[in-house]
Design brief:
The chain has about 725 residues and is of the alpha+beta class. It has 18 helices and 25 strands. Helix 6 (about 175-185) packs antiparallel against helix 11, helix 11 runs parallel beside helix 12 (about 410-430) and helix 14 (about 545-555) runs antiparallel to helix 15.
């Protein structure tokens, strides 16, 4: 009967152990036993460990099983390179570690026990029985059910293999902090402590073209191992003291050529640093007695120094020439990864600056808004795809927008900014949401032209957008959508649900697929809550998109009318956003307030010659009720008279006069059925044509036109 466990039942320990036969040649164990004879010379054993025979180069894999108390239950460290690492059954695993690494590794082991999430490929040192140390790559895995505990896999890599693996690992992130941390972790194979100090311009992503003259400002970007450091020691995120930056910058720029510098003993270190303050800031403990400073140099003419890597050792482990060559080779191979991360940091900073300019501002007196944006990745590397915006329109209404631009990065952010600003300008000019989307649709088509487009080489075809305009007087919302998911409305006295928006292709669709954009109007009485969002909030592989929208509606419906809206928005996102996001998450919540009934007045008048006089009479009575100042009252009456007279002269049908009292002034609106646009032009002294608009222009802080299905509305704002 075959006793080999099936793949489904095999534990991580069994799988690692079964793989050992592929890495340990026949006879290697006995050969290793001879080379690691505990009765032999300890120096000879250290040479055997550091420089294994050619036939033993692949003997690198081992595994240890632990119980929940972190004690060893099984071990398979038969590879020759592990000779002297005594994994005794029943002993604590941390007994294999240097004392200063015990707290950090214990925390990692406990974390994997509690969460089940593996901790993969960390550089770690193990103690041998002769006092020497072995550098390994350690991964911690949870034991497969029904077993309990952990499996720790250990890979003891040869120097050249370590160089290759380190270079591969360092290039996996575009975050400059993670890149520096990966480099420091790799350098730990050559020392007890490793630190990466970067030029401040590199850390912030600024352009670096050549090394500036004089002293450079250095900031600590990474430090390993992770332990409690004493007060005064420079840790990640701290700037190095100015004297330390000067010393390091001089060292790595000796004779105008960056080169590695080794300070061989503690006495020389203290002499170079000069003061106890600098010793406390830079030297990692009393045992550190030697340091190698290797510059991070970006090849070019002239070469650019991005920063410096520091590797610290104890007194009993002086640096050898071969080790310095390896250190320089690793840093040289990976400096370009640091520069790539710097460029990404610069792009990311630009994208964030652009996105902050588009974030909604204060909602004003008639509407309250709150927004949440979370990028697809924790380090924000994907910023730029989704956007939200809300802003008051000059005529007292409020615009709400949400969009999802195809792709991420600077190209998507540039398109996002252009579409947002264009939409804002068109809405402020009085265009309806469907007309704005028609213009955005044409803009996306033009941007896809790689020759003349503003974002050559980047395609925004298929981007989506939803625009809603809230009228605080009528308490209605006009909404148009281009391929976007429907907003969710929570009325004060009704069930929550998605707004019934007709589906439409995204922006820039082929001509044959284009359809007219619809305007959907619906009531949003005071207290209503409207949620606009992007698909990253509601998409879940386990649910249909309709179920995801339903979950959003149920969650938004739990927001109480007096809950702080920003806090409520964060709660909605935390409740719905997937833990492992594949797309940006964006939410815009808008709570409708509107004007009080007593702050607005509307009249409908026939288009007759006495319409202006009738309007003045009605408006005068209402201004008296509002106790309006005399000069403001005179200005409003004159403005209303001119606007009504202009409507009677150039339009047919009834005229609508609306007066709104806001916190900043009085808004006068006159609507008619005409389609001509009033224009303010130059008029001669005796020319009556257009003089009414000049009067309106002189008495108001702002005036304009918006278009409706039946004609137009001319509005004007008068300061109180």
């Amino acid at each position: 009967m075959d006793s080999t466990p099936s793949p489904s039942s095999a534990s991580p320990f069994d799988m690692v152990s079964s793989a050992l036969g592929q890495y340990i040649p026949r006879g290697a164990a006995s050969a290793a036993a001879g080379s690691a004879d505990p009765r032999g010379d300890s120096a000879a054993r250290r040479r055997a460990h550091a420089d294994p025979a050619p036939g033993a180069q692949e003997q690198i894999l081992g595994a240890v099983n632990l119980d929940r108390d972190l004690r060893i239950t099984r071990g398979n460290l038969d590879a020759p390179v592990f000779a002297g690492v005594e994994a005794v059954i029943g002993s604590p695993f941390v007994g294999l570690l240097p004392p200063w690494d015990v707290p950090t590794v214990t925390r990692r082991l406990r974390q994997v026990l509690e969460t089940g999430e593996p901790h993969v490929a960390r550089v770690q040192r193990l103690r041998r029985s002769d006092g020497s140390e072995l550098v390994v790559s350690m991964s911690i895995l949870a034991a497969a059910a029904p077993q309990e505990g952990l499996t720790v896999s250990l890979i003891a890599m040869a120097r050249r293999l370590h160089l290759y693996a380190a270079e591969t690992a360092i290039g996996t992130s575009l975050d400059i902090g993670e890149t520096a941390q990966s480099l420091a972790q790799s350098l730990l194979a050559w020392g007890d402590v490793a630190a990466i100090d970067l030029d401040f311009a590199v850390w912030t992503g600024e352009a670096v073209t050549e090394q500036p003259p004089g002293r450079i400002r250095l900031r600590r970007a990474a430090l390993v191992p992770d332990r409690g450091w004493p007060d005064g020691y420079v840790t990640p995120g701290d700037d190095l003291p100015s004297d330390a930056s000067r010393l390091l910058s001089q060292a790595i720029r000796r004779d105008d050529a960056a080169q590695a510098i080794v300070i061989p003993d503690r006495e020389a270190i203290e002499r170079v640093l000069g003061t106890p303050r600098l010793v406390r800031a830079l030297v990692p403990g009393d045992r550190a007695a030697a340091v190698a400073c290797i510059p991070l140099v970006l090849d070019g003419t002239p070469p650019v120094v991005l920063g410096v890597a520091e590797v610290w050792r104890r007194a009993d482990r002086p640096f050898e020439d071969s080790e310095l060559f390896d250190l320089q080779e690793l840093v040289a191979r990976t400096s370009h990864h640091v520069d790539l991360a710097r460029q990404h940091q610069r792009e990311h900073t630009q994208v964030l600056a652009l996105q902050r300019r588009l974030l909604p501002r204060s909602g004003g007196d008639t509407i309250e808004t709150a927004s949440v944006y979370q990028p697809a990745t924790p380090d924000s590397a994907g910023v730029g795809g989704d956007w939200v915006n809300s802003f008051p329109l000059p005529d007292g209404r409020t615009a709400l927008m949400v969009g999802d631009v195809v792709g991420h990065g600077l190209g998507a952010a540039a398109t996002m900014g252009q579409l947002s600003m264009e939409a804002r300008a068109l809405l402020s000019a009085g265009l309806a949401p469907d007309e704005v989307l028609e213009h955005l649709d044409e803009t996306v088509t033009l941007l896809d032209d790689a020759e003349s487009g503003l974002t050559a080489g980047y395609s925004a075809l298929g981007s989506t957008c939803c625009i809603a305009v809230y009228d605080p007087v009528s308490h209605h919302v006009e909404l148009s959508s281009a391929g976007h998911l429907p907003p969710v409305l929570v009325p004060p006295d009704g069930p929550a649900g998605p707004v019934a928006v007709r589906p439409h292709p995204g922006l820039g669709a082929e001509f044959a697929l284009r359809e007219p954009f619809d305007v959907h109007a619906f009531a949003a009485p005071p207290g209503s809550l409207l949620a606009l969002y992007t698909d990253g909030l509601v998409e879940d592989p386990a649910l249909s998109i309709d179920e995801g929208i339903g979950r959003l509606a149920d969650t938004v419906a739990t927001v109480h009318p007096w809950d702080a809206l920003q806090q409520a928005a964060r709660h909605v996102v935390s409740a719905l956003a997937p833990v492992r996001r594949r797309d940006d998450v964006t939410l815009l919540l808008a709570r409708m307030i509107g004007y009080r009934k007593g702050d607005t007045a509307t009249w409908r008048l026939p288009a007759r010659g006495d319409a202006a006089a009738r309007a003045r009479l009605l408006v005068s009575a209402r201004l008296g009720q509002w106790h309006t100042r005399g000069d403001t009252r005179d200005s409003v009456l004159l403005v209303v008279s001119e606007l009504v007279a202009n409507a009677v002269r150039f339009a047919d049908g009834p005229i609508t006069v609306r007066l709104i009292r806001s916190g900043h002034g009085l808004l006068c609106e006159v609507g008619d059925t005409g389609n001509g646009r009033p224009r303010l032009g130059r008029s001669e002294l005796l020319d009556d044509s257009g003089r009414g608009l000049h009067v309106v222009h002189g008495l108001t802080t702002r005036w304009g036109v918006r278009w409706t299905d039946t004609g137009k509305v001319v509005w004007a704002s008068v300061a109180r």
